[in-house]
Input
Amino acid sequence: MKKESLKAELRQLNFPKDSIIFITINTGAIGYFRKNKSETYNDLLEILISILDLKKGGIIFAAYTKGSFLLKPTRTFSKRSKSYAGNFINYLIKHKAIYRSQHPFESYIGLGKRAEEVLKSHDSESGPYTIFNSFIEKNNSYYLMIGTWNDGKNAPPSLHHCQEILGLTRKFTFKYFEKIYHQEMKRIFLRKQSGGCSKGGKKLAIELLEKKIAQQFKFGNANSIIIDPTASFIYTLEKLKKDEKAYVCEDSNCLSCRGNYYNNPLRFVQIILHKLRQKIFR
Output
């Protein structure tokens, strides 16, 4: 698999040079490898930005960070803090031209003029997913899910964005139980919101494909989709207004979905008691 062939595949999507693109990516699914991870990731970044003029457009990735439990030593968030979003994201975090938003838990990283414009206002006072407001009814804005739309781990951005708008991200079982120290602001923050589980996002992705709001394409070996941000937002919001549990996952023990205290208090207590018994009698 050659670098130029991957560039050609992206060019076929006909992105305007001033596009703003939010990307989730599973680099392993692409099937492109060099001598080491650093060379592989450097090439993939070059491929992704080759479709844009970074003086006009931009690309954005999630770079979320974990805090620590309230009673444990406090973790620190800084511009270079590691993310749990994967090795490629942590490679990008070290890039000298990267811009990172200042939300202590749900930060995002980006390259390019439009990316920086979106991210500079996303701080500790912002909701976790408010950056996606900047994709709605905006010219040349796109969501790309490269090898991630059907992996059972990622969700189309409209899912958590709409959950936040409807107040569902505040129905979070362990609100205020997680903390992090913000190095630049020199203060500790507690987690107030969470999108929680993304496993049910595959159901939404399939619906978006059926509604022609998303289209499939191949990037190397990775089954991928391109999503219309505005149309997906409208569809997802209406669906969640009718049924806020429309995209819960199938795991009966998931504390974000079927075991969420706000959704099912009895099931939440059953799961916690079961976990305690496992710890006591293992």
About this structure: DSSP finds nine helices and eleven strands in the chain. The mean pLDDT is 93. The longest strand covers residues 20-25. The radius of gyration is 19 Å.
